[in-house]
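Retro notes - structure team

What went well: the batch runner handled both jobs without manual restarts.
What didn't: labels got mixed up in the shared folder, which is why I'm recording both outputs here explicitly, each with its sequence directly above its tokens.

Job 1
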Amino acid sequence: MSVFVESVTKIYGSQRALDRVSFTINSGEIVGILGPNGAGKSTMMKIITGFLHPDAGAVLVNGVDIGENSLDIRRHIGYLPENNPLYTDLYVKEYLEYAAGLYSVKSVRSRIKEMIGMTGLEREQHKKIGALSKGYRQRVGIAQALIHDPSVLILDEPTSGLDPTQIVEIRQLIRHISTEKTVMLSTHIMQEVEALCDRIMILNHGKIIATDSTANIKNLAITGNQSILVEFEESINPDKLSEIHGVTGIQPVSDQIFIITGGQDDLRPIIFRYAVANQLTILTLNKQESSLENVFLEITR
């Protein structure tokens, strides 16, 4: 295992930012942390990286307690904070050389060259950081987080404020990095989670309220309802459709197309048998998938 968190609590005055949070992230996983503002995401990341100390609980990285060996643990963690603090008056290579020195990296020049190539900074390496676009600054931030070849990479809002092209490029970079490292990232972008993460943890009011694969999280049905899109060849009276066993709601889209809601049992075979019995022709019969965004909004409400 790479990261083990047990019953971690952090309190700021009267606010309980984290409330007995426990989870495990295994080697090679990409885990996304979702949650509303103030849910405790950044606090959790800062505790794992050693920037904050928990008021209770334990954090182990690669089996070592971070409370007892904070400096040693930081050698194994790469961290990109949300606001990506950089020295804007330094040149890209100069800044990476400085970051490498903090970690006593051997073969500094070759390592910097490797990081510049990996993060796509070849054309920007001779510029001052202050002259770079935000997308390239994020690349510099990721390069410094990787300069010491950590086994665990923690990214706080890595694509915040980027344009669509930059977002795709940073996602591809993170996916490439994850083949050899454990990655933990926080984001507000649902598409990012679906594109990158093997598993999701949803935080709310300092507690983990859901954790599972992306597919299983999307299939969470708090109300227990499902939606079926049905298109008939002919016009149908919606009152007739409400007679189908298990149907709890009918939403007409047109006089031939309806969204039918019901319980947890799959309604499609029931609707099909109803159509056959009533000599109706079905053109479309699709189960509507829950979106990650809708599930997130529902369980954090």
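Job 2
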Amino acid sequence: MPEYNNAADKAAPIGVFDSGLGGLTVLRELMALLPQEDFLYLADNANAPYGRNSPAKVRRDTLNNVDFFIQHGVKMIIFACNTSSAIALEAADERAGSIPVIGVIKAGIIAAMEVSGDLKAPAKIAVLATEATVNNGVFSRELPRVFAENDLPEPIVIQQACQDFVQVVEDGKWDDPLADDMAEHYLGEMRTSENPDLAILACTHFPFLENSIQKALPDSELVDCSKALALEVKELLLSFNLHNEKKHDSELKFFVTEDTSGIKQNIERILDIEIERVHHVDIKNAEEFER
């Protein structure tokens, strides 16, 4: 990846995308850690949920999102979506050219490794994810490899698709009793049969349900990939000489591919800010994004 020295590059915004509101957990961490950076957030909710789409569709939609960010002159693209990171990161990196593309999966694996480093026996790690991420198997492949490379015992990996968690979050019901019921439905059997040492929240929607998931897995330490990803982004901005040197706080713009009721209020609720508006963009049918 090249080093950037142009002042215009440094002042450019960072693009963050997800299939919906889940990626706001990443944006929230980025805003706290990098208050001088500007961000464009894209929720491709017209094509959500990515976790139930075919790999071909996830790849196509992801590349459309990358094209959108290229058109808007971002200096870095962050996949705040485990499904896209699992399926389309390599293709997106090629499409983006010299623009760095950062996925969330690597950060989650490193965070899990740090949490489990003090365990005497091989760690039992639950991966809570979408159907597409589970089917791709990236965590079951990469967790043992990364642990072995760092001289740690290869973990026992338990995958669990929790697809309906996504809709609970998109509906703004993460504090509703429904969230507890849903967590018990998906994780109750895992608690009694496996009782994992830690659980990776391998979808950026899932940290919204942290309290419900912890109730269902009381003995498991939860690993939120969002914090680890924000730290990785900060390090990369410095190493690429892309960090913004302005003094004022972040400027934010929000885009959705489907203008749904209540989305502005949910964004404000999640980020604890007031925003002027949410822009609707028809990426799928825009000629400049069709290739």
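One thing worth noting from job 2: The first strand starts at residue 14 and ends at 18.
We'll revisit the folder naming next retro.
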